[in-house]
Amino acid sequence: MLRFPTCFPSFRVVGEKQLPQEIIFLVWSPKRDLIALANTAGEVLLHRLASFHRVWSFPPNENTGKEVTCLAWRPDGKLLAFALADTKKIVLCDVEKPESLHSFSVEAPVSCMHWMEVTVESSVLTSFYNAEDESNLLLPKLPTLPKNYSNTSKIFSEENSDEIIKLLGDVRLNILVLGGSSGFIELYAYGMFKIARVTGIAGTCLALCLSSDLKSLSVVTEVSTNGASEVSYFQLETNLLYSFLPEVTRMARKFTHISALLQYINLSLTCMCEAWEEILMQMDSRLTKFVQEKNTTTSVQDEFMHLLLWGKASAELQTLLMNQLTVKGLKKLGQSIESSYSSIQKLVISHLQSGSESLLYHLSELKGMASWKQKYEPLGLDAAGIEEAITAVGSFILKANELLQVIDSSMKNFKAFFRWLYVAMLRMTEDHVLPELNKKDITFVAEFLTEHFNEAPDLYNRKGKYFNVERVGQYLKDEDDDLVSPPNTEGNQWYDFLQNSSHLKESPLLFPYYPRKSLHFVKRRMENIIDQCLQKPADVIGKSMNQAICIPLYRDTRSEDSTRRLFKFPFLWNNKTSNLHYLLFTILEDSLYKMCILRRHTDISQSVSNGLIAIKFGSFTYATTEKVRRSIYSCLDAQFYDDETVTVVLKDTVGREGRDRLLVQLPLSLVYNSEDSAEYQFTGTYSTRLDEQCSAIPTRTMHFEKHWRLLESMKAQYVAGNGFRKVSCVLSSNLRHVRVFEMDIDDEWELDESSDEEEEASNKPVKIKEEVLSESEAENQQAGAAALAPEIVIKVEKLDPELDS
Amino acid sequence: MALQQAQMLLSMNSLEAVNAGVQQNNTESFAVALCHLAELHAEQGCFAAASEVLKHLKERFPPNSQHAQLWMLCDQKIQFDRAMNDGKYHLADSLVTGITALNSIEGVYRKAVVLQAQNQMSEAHKLLQKLLVHCQKLKNTEMVISVLLSVAELYWRSSSPTIALPMLLQALALSKEYRLQYLASETVLNLAFAQLILGIPEQALSLLHMAIEPILADGAILDKGRAMFLVAKCQVASAASYDQPKKAEALEAAIENLNEAKNYFAKVDCKERIRDVVYFQARLYHTLGKTQERNRCAMLFRQLHQELPSHGVPLINHL
């Protein structure tokens, strides 16, 4: 069947689906025809436009969380961020794969997010971008972590370790703004590193928008007081970010590197802890048990020495060796010690050391930045703090090095000891005896025995064992305790010299060395210090963001559960080209929701004409009958489709069920028509609530002849538009039914017979030249018609008799 | 980074010593690490600590023992640098012989530096040219770059900055190729200075963005001071085209940077440079109409000038 080409079949349906779970959030990718959804089951789903086919889903899990509250795309569309209420985490996820690339915790559950990209250009910025990071030239690539340890964070699991760079994306700064309950607002550069914590805004955030010129941040919050909640709009000045943009960019990138490296070191350490097995403690526990059970007075050390010198063991020792340890057990113990030590050693050398060296490099770069006081001091970067952090990293490196040496000597010792013990035990069983040890080996073993087999009663009180033969584990324990047996630094000429020196001891260039502390302890200390100096800029920048404007909007008495409200108004939008903040919200008037548009300049000192305007939807012209659909409409949802258009879902208050919802594209050029804009001035005051002064809000009545569509057999409630790919997605009020539209088909003369199976051709509202217009509205309508050229009159094959209400 | 490596080496040596023999620590590596530590401390102005390390080295490695040369050279270099900072060129000159005996290339280079400071340009130039050829033959890249930088300095001191540019670019290319980050930043600093002389201070400022962070991060105190001084000069030069309120702001910023440079120079008692900074500050205060501050700086300048009479090198021709 070939139909006549129809012009403006306004918004072609390209997909429709009933979903098993209720959707609580949906947002289009800014660059591709992908839509991300979050549902009540805690899943995050990615769907493709074409037939709403599912690309992937991110199932809820214990680690990340189960209660997704909101989603945001990075402006380049390559990363998706979602917030989880139960774990208070933010997860960044690759668009290609449903796996967490990075996650971080926040203080409060996040209720809304906004991810923006800076658009400012300047010569200083370019030179900053060019100066970006010689680190990949100068530093070795970080080796990847073993696969099974990298579940928590995928940054380091890929083959190339430039993953951090990839995660950072473009050099251009992008900022993820998070808002939550009780005035919680935080800004994360590149979606990874906190650069500001805003204080002083009360209430739960409903919407956020940081303007792309970085001049101001718009926030809509809600304060609930006895049943109803009061919604207000705030505009915060972010001049510090704006005027120090190159510095902020550079600092944020450095910070991101540093925090990623800290994470890397943490993971390496976890790997090391896992490589260390409990089996290694066997030796200590066996010997302790032996001490407890034996009834001789001779010490263990003497017993072993006896065995070494005379080749004969006491009966007790013999039982211990032959019945408990056994030859087989000894072999196994030897093997596991060797394998686990060598894997720890490998991790220290390849991962921990290279990781901490990169960390040191980045921190010293940061120190260089901080010393440039004119540029970085206003941002709260503090050179003294960073110097302290560098010293802490140095101490950590020294400690790691110490561990390496301990492993080295332990491996040597154990090898010799086990070999000797093996020979001794073979002799006891009177098996074939291996060649004797030479004298040097015997001295070595004797030395080992004196050093390691001392009974230590005080140790027993602390740890429940008398011996500490195994000396690697103590470094890997996450405890505040001192090391059980710290390395011997006596006779160490460097430390002696340092101790006896007068000036060198106080030298700020030397890294302090904590001989009695474990690797974990030193690491934690380092983390704390680094965190502290990275925290400071967030506080400083946050404090600089002053609340400049506060406009109380309306009182909301709707009692809806919190999850559903997320879709609701108000909606914030930033027009990047004209530097305006737009706010869409509704005011309840005569049981109808009237849509209002508030706009403000991003620069607080500048004002803008037609700051507040209300929209009344007057009539919709039906193509077929040359009749006009006249009714009273209530605005259900509205969202910016692109800089010029708002997509609105309307409810026809007199329409019958299933035919009462409309999808409308509202062009702003008509709303802010320059010819008669002077007539639409807000006469009230912004200091009292806007819904109390409804009459002062200028109302523009709009009439539509095209760019609208009846939403058949669907209780549409919400809409999400995407002007980049020219699509919209409508969600029904039961939150399970979605319908996707292609919005811009002006130029498309479709000769397609198969695409619209789901819908009846008869239902298509088609545009005709409007003729039925009341006198009073003629003026407006003419303006609208002019903007909506070209006008083409079409004959339609079939009429819908029911269209008129 | 160097600091970390040196300390790691030192602590490594130590733990080995516990297990094996006692004499383990008198190795070359130990001596090198300590020398390095001494130099690093001297660079950061911790002269007391540096001399303490050297004293320890002297005890550990007596003058006629195998590795004594290492600390001797290090000691003389530190002394030389201090003499140069202090403006005692004759003292520096007398140290050159000692350095040459231990390391001829280093010695010749330092001789040229002294000659340059004493305004004996043509002799310095001859020496540097010879050294350049020699080092290129030996592929001693670091020295090649340092020599190139010195030659460039000679050129603009004789007021021909355009000839200096190819030298600097060659030095930059070399240091980038061999990943010598610090020398690269040093070269960029020189390039920026050349641009300043050529009258494009805005360019110079944006170039400085690239170089200043590594210098402030790991550089010697003297270099940090020089970098900040240069930033201030560029700020003043580019402020010339601004209108009044913006200009005052830029000059204030420059004064702040000069203060910082002064602090750095004070740490290594480089009186000559402090004198220059103070002079410059006095001029800026004068422009801003701040008489009291101006007089204070001027008095400081007067004191320093009496101590160290200027040798007629114009302020601008000195990085």
TrEMBL record, chain B:
GO biological-process terms attached to the record: cell division; protein ubiquitination
Quaternary assembly: The mammalian APC/C is composed at least of 14 distinct subunits ANAPC1, ANAPC2, CDC27/APC3, ANAPC4, ANAPC5, CDC16/APC6, ANAPC7, CDC23/APC8, ANAPC10, ANAPC11, CDC26/APC12, ANAPC13, ANAPC15 and ANAPC16 that assemble into a complex of at least 19 chains with a combined molecular mass of around 1.2 MDa; APC/C interacts with FZR1 and FBXO5.
Primary localisation category: cytoplasm
Protein role: Component of the anaphase promoting complex/cyclosome (APC/C), a cell cycle-regulated E3 ubiquitin ligase that controls progression through mitosis and the G1 phase of the cell cycle. The APC/C complex acts by mediating ubiquitination and subsequent degradation of target proteins: it mainly mediates the formation of 'Lys-11'-linked polyubiquitin chains and, to a lower extent, the formation of 'Lys-48'- and 'Lys-63'-linked polyubiquitin chains. The APC/C complex catalyzes assembly of branched 'Lys-11'-/'Lys-48'-linked branched ubiquitin chains on target proteins.
Localization: Cytoplasm, Cytoskeleton, Spindle; Nucleus
Domain of life: Eukaryota
Similarity annotation: Belongs to the APC5 family.
Protein name, as recorded: Anaphase-promoting complex subunit 5
Pathway: Protein modification; protein ubiquitination
Upper classification of the organism: Eukaryota, Metazoa, Chordata, Craniata, Vertebrata
Source species of the chain: Homo sapiens
Gene: ANAPC5
Keyword set, alphabetical order: Cell cycle, Cell division, Cytoplasm, Cytoskeleton, Mitosis, Nucleus, Phosphoprotein, Repeat, TPR repeat, Ubl conjugation pathway
GO cellular component, one term: spindle
